Amino acid sequence: MHQDGRRLTPQRQRVLELFERRGSGCHLSAEDVHQELVALEMKVSLATVYRSLRLLADMGFLQELELSEGGRRFELALDDHRDHHHVVCIRCGRTEEFESQSVLAAGAEAAESIGFKLIESSLNVRAICPSCQD
Ligand SMILES: [Zn+2]
Ligand SMILES: [Zn+2]
Known about the structure:
The chain is of the alpha+beta class. It folds into 2 domains: about 1-80, Winged helix-like DNA-binding domain superfamily/Winged helix DNA-binding domain (Arc Repressor Mutant, subunit A, Orthogonal Bundle), CATH 1.10.10; about 85-134, Ferric-uptake regulator, C-terminal dimerisarion domain (Dna Ligase, domain 1). It is about 35% helix and about 20% strand. The protein has a 3-stranded mixed β-sheet, with no helix packed on it. α2 packs across α3. The longest helix is centred in the N-terminal third of the chain and has 13 residues, at about 10-20. It is globular. The chain binds zinc ion (ZN) (2 copies). The site of one zinc ion has 5 residues, from loops.
């Protein structure tokens, strides 16, 4: 925490706590987080929330999911919760997790076959949830 922009300010701490209270498996957009903070009577703009989220992701506290139609969502970055994948509803953004050894194996094999050193393999599946199918 050397640069000013990278300190865990009270506000960023609040954002992080919001994720920690909900635990793993919770995927929130900047809008979700903003609504929660406003409900807690915090005066904060959506732009500020977004900046805090990006920063917490850069600092390694949160993991950012880039989902084409669903926008971006954030979740807690936990070591024991790394190897999971996401099914995302492209209409409402509902995000569910799944685990798959074959996805992990395919990633490892693909990287290895061309001499790359594997960091992680993750799969985002775009889909339409039951309530959005009608
Ligand atoms: Zn997840
Ligand atoms: Zn949906």
